[in-house]
Automatic annotation (TrEMBL):
This is Phospholipid-transporting ATPase. InterPro entries: ATPase_P-typ_cyto_dom_N (IPR023299), ATPase_P-typ_P_site (IPR018303), ATPase_P-typ_TM_dom_sf (IPR023298), ATPase_P-typ_transduc_dom_A_sf (IPR008250), HAD-like_sf (IPR036412), HAD_sf (IPR023214), P-type_ATPase_IV (IPR006539), P-type_ATPase_N (IPR032631). One of its GO terms (biological process) is phospholipid translocation. It comes from Emericellopsis atlantica. Residues 101-114, 122-134, 392-403 have a biased composition (Basic and acidic residues). Mg(2+) binds at D632, T634, D1041, D1045.
Amino acid sequence: MSSSPRSQQPQPPDSPTHDSDSDLDLDIQELDPISTEPTRGASQQQQRHSGGGEQGTSRIALRKLRMGGLRRNKRGRGYGDLGQNRDEWGEDTEGLLGEGSRSRYSDGEGHGDDDSPLLGEHAGRRSLTSDRGSRRGSRVRLPSFMSGSKKGDEEDGDDQEEADPSASRLVAVGSTQATRFPANIISNAKYTAFTFLPITLWNEFSFFFNMYFLLVALSQAIPALRIGYLSTYIAPLAFVLLITMGKEAFDDIGRRKRDTEANSEEYRVLHFDEPSFSGTARPRRQLKSDSQRKKSRGQKAQRHDLTDIREEEEGGDAQSSSQVCEISKKSKDLKVGDVLKLSKGQRVPADVVILQCSNVVESGEVIPAKEYAEEEALLALDESGSASAKGKQTEVESLKNEEQSGTVGETFIRTDQLDGETDWKLRLASAISQNLPLEEFVRLRVTGGKPDKKVNEFLGALELLPSRQDAMDQQSSLQRDDGKSAPLSIDNTAWANTIIASQATTLAVIIYTGPHTRSALSTSPSRSKTGLLEYEINSLTKILCALTLALSVILVALEGFENTEGNRWYVKIMRFLVLFSTIVPISLRVNLDMGKSAFSWFIQRDPGIPGAVVRTSTIPEDLGRIEYLLSDKTGTLTQNEMDMKKIHVGTVSYANEAMEEVTSYVRQGFYIQPTTDPSSQTALITPSSTFTAAANQGATRTRREIGSRVRDVVLALALCHNVTPTTDFEDGQEVTSYQASSPDEIAIVRWTESVGLRLASRDRTSMTLESTENGRPVVRVRILDVFPFTSDGKRMGIVVHFHTDTNIRNPDLSTGEIWFYQKGADTVMSNIVVANDWLDEETANMAREGLRTLVVGRKKLSLSQYQEFASRHQEASLAITGREAGMQRVVSHYLESDLELLGVTGVEDKLQRDVKPSLELLRNAGIKIWMLTGDKVETARCVAVSSKLVARGQYIYTVAKLKRKDNAQDHLDFLRSKTDACLLIDGESLALFLTHFRKEFISIAVTLPTVVASRCSPTQKAEVALLIKEFTKKRVCCIGDGGNDVSMIQAADVGVGIVGKEGRQASLAADFSIEQFCHLVKLLVWHGRNSYKRSAKLAQFVIHRGLIIAVCQTMYSIALKFEPEGLYKDWLLVGYATVYTAFPVLSLVLDKDVDENLANLYPELYKELTSGRSLSYRTFFIWVLVSIYQGGMIQGLSQIFTEVDGPKMVAVSYTVLVLNELLMVAIEITTWHPVMIVSILGTFLFYLGSMPFLGRYFDLEFIITWGFLWRVLAIASISLVPPYLGKVISRTMKPPSYRKVQST
């Protein structure tokens, strides 16, 4: 037929339009960078409509141009024939092959902008209009992917000591780089050796009371102000600083150790040595095409680059550009240009460009992936629907050869640690490098843009240059006559912290390392966190300092401001300030820091939270003050493991044990009765097959109808997907696993296998299903078109052609059935399927159960219908403007109408253990929970419902794809009027609100019980956390498990990381690391409560301890006619704050007001903590009054009962002071612990034992008399009884909540 490319008359060999191998010809439209992903049907239609008179315009799949594909056909035709008489444009088409060979299974990310030249105005760009015209005439010369200007070349050629982060980079693969790039080191440390002292000292002295004590200590250097020993004031301050700085150093050393573990992870790297030759090394010989390229530009080269392939192969090992060996390197030693060898489950340690992918068996042999019949799907259709006998024979031979051709270069990666999306992403190796021998990798050079935080964008190019030296030459231009280039996009990359999900071995070159990686640029630097209690105590110490100053001035004023010889009034004020410095207790920080260390130890040793790690031990009390919890979804609330729970076929629903009935239907529906007819042994099932009629003879009509429905929906689910089966070896056994971009699809395919229909094999053009009962292939289809799932379309479709016999491998389209299958969200599918009365009700029921629903439908197509669709779809794919919309209109018109509704599936995203009760308990504790995820809106909604984050019956208000500011105001107005609703918002809408309605949005959002944000970038998550903190001034806790959660975790007041399956980045950067979300409940409700309550009580006691001694000093000074003389000096002052009271006060860290069961049973108790009543101005001033009373009584009565000044008074006063503090601790204890008893009794006995050594301060003869004893007991009783009675009366009249709970 004249229209068939295969039936054209051969041209003379010297004809410029001669095509020596039509399989290797190109369609210029296939190389259009804007239409890089035409549908398969579109490509087929393009084949049919090529005019017969248009010589030299036959077309094939671009994959045929891959190097491996060129080597495969050695039969009847040499390499010379393959390369003969090419137009000179052939070289330049190589530059676009990376886009042209892009897989049909794209993850849906756009490429329009990515395909634009990297170097802007100087880069050549092809006119689409001229391209379309060129299809009717002679061929045109296609420019390479990019070209460089002189300016750019000069800049690239400059040798740079350090990499410029704002400039693009040239990376020579496998060679040393001319530019120095940063090391590939992960660092979560807060300090370096140089910054530790300045930063920690600044943090310490930014607190008022530390600065206050520094000034007091410095004042002792002035002789007129010195009171007692200088060490009395210097030593406590130094001790506090050493304790605090030591703790910071300990925490940071722990972070560095964990970073070292990650940086020491071993990776396999290909090492390229210079090739060794026997004798003298000889250079790479010149290829024939090399000399031809030196001819005048006006002359056309008569040979093609493909001829070079043969010449290089014939040259053997002598032509190798390098020698390759495999070495092991630590992650921190990896450098830009290194070629990594990655396998399934490995974390990608840096940003890489994928060069080659291949399937590997256990022995290490590389197995090329099967690609049979790919071009057959593009060439099978011509205008008559048939091909010539010669053409068909050529196709079949081509298929056989193609099974042995090069690999496809595909791998899947998981990016949930980077962007939170659970769908696997398909990544492709460039056509230039996919089948290139490893020894020639050193001739490759990658051009990449500047380091960027945009994880979904990349522009670059891959060049194959004549030699290794050329690849290392930074002055080379990007467009050369002796090289080949191809564009690189996001499809050719894998960013750091993604996980290789495919069985394929992936070879990739590093282009960005360390701080230049996408994940590092998206992560905010670590910061020092300070607890809310610290700020509250800082405010209280300012009040105490003001009290000290006021007291000093008052005492001097009472005496008068007259200056006498050697006694200036301002000096007296300064001396009083030093004497009263105990009011602001220096030991407060020591006690609090030791308490925090104890709380951290309790958390890490709690058997109820196995694996818990405290990485920031300065903020455990903040765990008891959380009011907003921001949680990630994937890996935090969910396991990211899908499970098919329910299927509804219209009249009956199957779930749980009822699935066994589905299995019996499938067994009957796909059973082929063996007969004497040989064809029954090779027969295959189609939707219209009648093989199973005999199996259902005894069944009722209703049962036969249900069986038919079940068979149809199971077949549809087994075919309508993008899943590929892979085989792996574990413990010597062969294990089949599935790869797909969506875990939903894997769950469905696993379910079809469990009911009897297994996906045996899948490639780009075919799919085979087999029975699990006997392993026999029962269904085989040719894939004609695939329409991938997109967030806009919310549906996925596939057009397949059913085979009828296993012996007929590539049947003509006219001999079998063509069906269109589609599955998608009920919101879009309800308008596509035929009218029915059950779909809406059933999808609503499944949605209420938190299941992710998919509606499945099908439509049978005749050959003429499919041909018409393919023709129109191809035309739409060539449009310059509105291409995507036009293609969708064609699909909607020809395919997406009146589909037969087959059924509805319900897939559950498995939740983490005890997520539901945990969320409910936290909500009852008064914590408002937000879920921030990078996943899809529908997925976020389902998980919010299934996890009970959204209460049953609660209204979910959805805001998605918001682009206009006026519409945003309407949403805000609605939310103001419905504050009990759950807000579900996507990242695009959230960005608009945060840009234009920042204050209005957050003021409404924080009042809502629940907010769910989907499609959130890591930066947006952190911004939301900071915004809530800034607006509400409340404590915010963020929890996540992925690298995309690090920014949010670090921005929060309390960051909690979950040790996920995919990595430890979140847990390394977090303040607290746990293994399960449910452990967060105990961390907050129990440990948070105890840490805060104990810290508050500890702080109050330390303040009380300092105030009471200051009041005693005041009374003493008044008695001495306002002279600033010290009452307790030297050891008495130091000993009182340390050995005589420290341990009993510190033992308060073991106190608890309720037990753990009550704390969990009554989470409302946690709500009280957020108000901060345990340490408030009210409680503070109560303690001030108690201190004034007790100090006044102790010192006043001591002076009355003994003497105004002297060792007897000091002995009585000091002994009562110590005894009073010990008994006050005992009064305040709620739950006794053995350590408390030992510390109180032990301290008292230690004090008694030390009294004989205090003869310098005490009258030792007096202390062994009864007079001393009765005075001490009398004064202590007067000091202690009234405060104790006041406490008892207060608790009786108005008992605290925990007392009420304990009494029930």
